[in-house]
């Protein structure tokens, strides 16, 4: 209904303007005053209506912009937290790699000791067998 009313105001404005032009052309200047006054009044109403619509749109856009700004702040905070977590994970990974390298080194050393112990045990067994043979 508002759209029909607004459209009607525009049509009435053009009709009264047209009436003013017709009155001026026909030489009846006094008769041109009424349609011209009506045209000016309708123009003022239309201008006010357009200002109200523009103001409402600006308010709506301002709210949307504020909402988007808040979302950007939240996302920026999330990104900063993720970057901190990533750095922490990188440090943990370096530490785990270091610990793993130490474990591998210790395992290799333990394996060498086991081989020496096994060699010594075999040598002892050979010596024991040789002693029994003698």
Quickly describe the structure.
The protein is an all-alpha fold and 134 residues long. It contains two helices and no strands. The mean pLDDT is 77.
Give an account of the 3D structure.
α1 (2-25) packs antiparallel against α2. The mean pLDDT is 77. The protein contains two helices and no strands. The protein is mostly helical and 134 residues long.
What descriptors fit this protein?
134 residues, mainly alpha, single chain, 2 helices, rod-shaped
Structural class call reads mainly alpha
Mean pLDDT: 77
The largest sheet is: none
Number of strands: 0
Write the layout of secondary structure elements.
Blueprint: H1 2-25, H2 29-133
């Amino acid at each position: 209904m508002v759209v029909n009313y607004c459209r009607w105001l525009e049509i009435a404005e053009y009709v009264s303007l047209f009436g003013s032009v017709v009155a001026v052309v026909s030489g009846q200047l006094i008769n041109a005053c009424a349609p011209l006054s009506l045209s000016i009044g309708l123009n003022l109403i239309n201008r006010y209506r357009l200002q109200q619509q523009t103001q409402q749109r600006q308010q709506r856009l301002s709210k949307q912009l504020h909402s988007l700004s808040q979302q950007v702040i939240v996302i920026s905070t999330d990104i900063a937290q993720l970057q901190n977590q990533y750095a922490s994970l990188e440090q943990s990974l370096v530490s785990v790699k270091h610990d793993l390298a130490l474990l591998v080194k210790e395992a290799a050393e333990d394996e060498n000791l086991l081989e020496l112990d096994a060699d010594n045990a075999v040598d002892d067994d050979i010596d024991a067998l040789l002693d029994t043979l003698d």
